Amino acid sequence: MKIGELARQTGVSVRSLRYYESQGLIAPVRQANGYREYSPLAIETVESIKLYLNLGLSTEEIAGFLNCVLKNKESFCAEVMPVYQSKLEEIEKQILQLNQIKLNLEQRISSILEEQHDQDILIDKEHGRE
């Protein structure tokens, strides 16, 4: 199948498919006219790439184990678990950082609201309103 057909069947843009090819994730056969020709197995490969991208993995990380998982179950690919564990640690660190940022923002908002409230009380006192 041609690249456009692969794009239609997988919901992935032609540009992304070309990028996957440049990263060594998919490998079409080149015809004499230069067109890319993909085997039906390319659909499964692209679907696998989409799954791993949705897990937050980079194409570089995926390239490290894609061939293995296409031939075997994930549980038989020793390269998968370290990548998953590393990604999980990275996400946990990001969550901690985001929670700290959230706390900082909540404190700033509280501080600003308190200052505004105090300012409103002063203005009311100056105008004889209490």
TrEMBL record:
Keywords for the protein's UniProt record, in alphabetical order: DNA-binding, Transcription, Transcription regulation
Molecular function via GO: DNA binding; DNA-binding transcription factor activity
SMART domains named among the record's database cross-references: HTH_MERR
CDD domains for the chain: HTH_MerR-like_sg3
Domain HTH merR-type as annotated: residue spans: 1-68
Entry-linked SUPFAM superfamilies: Putative DNA-binding domain
Domain of life: Bacteria
Record bears the keyword Metal-binding: no
Annotated InterPro entries: DNA-bd_dom_put_sf, MerR-type_HTH_dom, MerR_fam
Name this polypeptide is given: MerR family transcriptional regulator
Organism of provenance: Paenibacillus agri
